Please model this.
Amino acid sequence: MLGSTERVWGRLFETQGATYRPTTLVFYSGGTQAGCGFASASAGPFYCPADSRIYLDTAFFDELANRFGAPGDFAQAYVIAHEVGHHIQALEGTLGQVQRAQRQLSEREANALQVKVELQADCYAGVWAAQDRNLLEPGDAEAGLRAAAAVGDDTLQKASQGEVVPEAFTHGSAAERQAWLKRGLASGDPAQCDTIGGALR
Model:
């Protein structure tokens, strides 16, 4: 699956006259040392720009299937493709720009900007799937959309605290995450994934 992301993004970068530098996927159990500090299973899957690696606790896919009700290969692929999306953002310079901007913002504004970053990564995950459709089997897109909804901030907040606090969102609502994944799936075009727009200008 990671090889597929390398082929797709390698081709897309080439059309822009750029070279894609692949990320590395690190599986761990319980906890591990990452370039961004110590990673524990409670952090969930994440991308570390400091070492250009994706970290994924091996128990997360069980949690995705059992706790979040999103089983299946494509639900897992969506999670990895979303993190690869953050790697794309790092290569494009977006992540660095966002982090610099967030230092000047209130917590609420910084969270709102982070949501835009996460939704773009969802869209990029859809672009990857659209570009490599031979990997998709019937029902896969629906499984990916279920996974996107399962990890929406409103879904997670309701499950953990019984109420939804939109100003505390850092990844986007279930509906937003599904909408941007769908947009990527429908277009197959990274240029359609501009969630950030003028937020950094």
